[in-house]
Amino acid sequence: MNIFEFRNLLKTEDKKERRMSFFRSLIKPVEAGANGTQDYVVKKGSGKNKIASTRQ
């Protein structure tokens, strides 16, 4: 690997890292049970008519 390829590799890794940190900063935490989201009932699938649980 020559110097040019190495620099490009470092540059792309740096770009990727900055992009991922930007997306992480956009994610906002959600409160379980806020705005009536607690006690949802599953309507389809194997857990039909069961209350959906919140995992923490």
- With helices defined by DSSP (H or I, 4 residues minimum), what is the helix count? 1
Biggest sheet statistics: none
Which spans of ≥5 residues are poorly predicted at pLDDT below 50?
none
Cα-based radius of gyration, to the nearest Å: 22 Å
Total beta strands: 0
Pattern of helices and strands: H
The fraction of residues in strands falls at under 5%
Task: Report the mean per-residue pLDDT as an integer.
Answer: 80
Q: Give the CA-CA distance, first to last residue.
A: 46 Å
Work out the helicity level: 40-55%
By secondary-structure content and strand pairing, the structural class works out as mainly alpha
Q: What is the 3D shape?
A: elongated
Q: Summed up, what is this model?
A:
By secondary structure, the chain is mainly alpha-helical. It is built from one helix and no strands.
Fold and architecture overview:
The protein has 56 residues and is mainly α. The chain has a domain at 3-31. Helices cover 43% and strands 0% of the residues. The chain is built from 1 helix and no strands. The protein has one helix spanning 3-26.
Quickly list its features.
mainly alpha; elongated; 56 residues; 43% helix
What does the secondary structure layout of this molecule look like, with pairings?
Layout: H1 3-26
